[in-house]
Amino acid sequence: MMLPSIPAPRTLTIAYRAYVALFFLYLAIPLVVVAAFAFNDSLYPSLPWKGFTLDWFFGTTAPKIGLFYDTAILRGLLNSLMVAVVTTAASVFVGTTTAFLFERYEFRFKGVAYMLMLAPLVIPGVILGISILAFSSSIANAADDAFGIELSALRPGLLLVALGQFSFIATIATLVISSRLRKFDRSLEEAALNLGATPLSAILTVTLPYLSPALIGSSLVAFLMSFENFNTTLMLVGSDAPLTITMFDRMKQGSTPVLDAVSLFLMLGSGLLGLISVMAQRRGAKGAE
Amino acid sequence: MSAGPAQTVAVDGQAAARRLSFLLVFAPFALWIALVILVPQLNLLFLSLQEKIGPRHYVTGVGNYADLFGERVYVLTLVRTVVMSLIATAATLVIGFPVAYYIAKIARGRARTALFVSCLLPFWVSELVRVFGWMLILRETGLLSRLLQWLGLVDGPVEFLYNDVAVMVGLIYTSMLFMVVPLISTLDSLDDALVEAGYDLGGNGFAVLREIIVPHAKPGIVAGSIIVFMLNLGNYLTPTLLGGKNSQWFTAQIYSQFITRFNWESGSAFGFVLLLTSSLLVWLGLRVTGQTLSGTVGKG
């Protein structure tokens, strides 16, 4: 059954379909399990099923402190949101300028520059983390030794987390925006110029609106990637932990189903953002035709 | 025809504007690459070459590397990490390829979109949540253990977590998307007529797969394999949570050198060895398959 048009034995067709179905079951099971235990009226996220409860969302008394009353988790959520907003803004801005750089300009060592732009994709996240940690610490130490100034922003904390995430998310943003910019019909810009627009206003009024699906798409992708990043974040985290780190610490200890509730909350949030980004890109693809 | 003064000024003005606009788009790129990629990596290399010989006293040398390669457990961990990552990558390819092919070539219309989106959705969810799901299934009090007891196949609870198989399951699961999506996009561009021609010329399914489909899908296979291999090799979360204290993953060694022991010089050497290992293997993979980084991963 290599193609629908090619006849194949019925058993083979059925076996192939069954395999694909099994695959999607395998994709879904861990997530379904996590979601289901968020409603289990038990102190542990495991069987037996002790009845339905919403306490892991709205519970106010220990040991059943729900997600919306768990201060550590709420603080983690807030930290993650702040980091994600900063990382997204920086990544999409740099991604846009870099896309223009590679799509519109010829310059010496362009090939080398392009390889450098892709490099963050092939550097393990942990290494991006430790290199930024070591570099910013050495600047902070030098400032302290030479001038007695304490640059606390360069110590592990939310700013470094954002920098670490930006270092590779900017590459993703560049790739997404470049691929749309490449399809842009330059004659539209020239028409604007002929009609008396300045180059800057031509880009602002013609090119950027054309790019908007890619800008929205890359923003959503950047936001999600920042929100869920673990490896780079782990190395740069200070006393304010983003949500992934807070959850990781609890998971190691074996926590209550409040983790299931947070996970379900994250699934719904990221599923929604993911769907919006798929739709934005599909609409963009249609607009490009 | 000679250009008048006004025209020269205009041309000069245009060239200057072009130079200025180039600088404006070049500066953010240069700052990004220099300040958070290039200089920190060079600084890491420099740090890894600093040997501590006393309190606040260092000499330059390769002692940190010698320590790493002199210690059996570190070398074994590195080899183990590479081998397990390769196995997980191969398994991801083998499991994902038929699914990618089904979505790209066999499913049609709405079913195709539905399958593609349901392939994507689980991966919009944080890796942490996905690993958590496997913990709930595999641990001693987890679903699988309960199921086996209920079926009467085992007498007591069975621990499925904290071993290599659990780590492998987690690695394959968490990186599946990064294999399937590049595969779908290359298989999508394969002309159905080529596959039909293969059959018309008397090829069987296997021959068509080997001679037509796989060669065409090569950029996708290489891109997927590189990304998945890199993600596995650099993974910390999955081996730590599913493999437990004895997961012996190389990133865990880096973490312990850097954060637990605060031995940054040695940790930098560990980090550099991991970076060189992954770069070398990625380069080898591209070399052997005749692909380029920008032609595979760079396509996005």
UniProtKB/TrEMBL annotation, chain B:
Gene3D superfamilies: MetI-like (1.10.3720.10). It comes from the Bacteria. It is found in: Cell membrane. It is a multi-pass membrane protein. Keywords: Cell membrane, Membrane, Transmembrane, Transmembrane helix, Transport. Residues 78-285 form the ABC transmembrane type-1 domain. Belongs to the binding-protein-dependent transport system permease family. CysTW subfamily. This is ABC transporter permease.
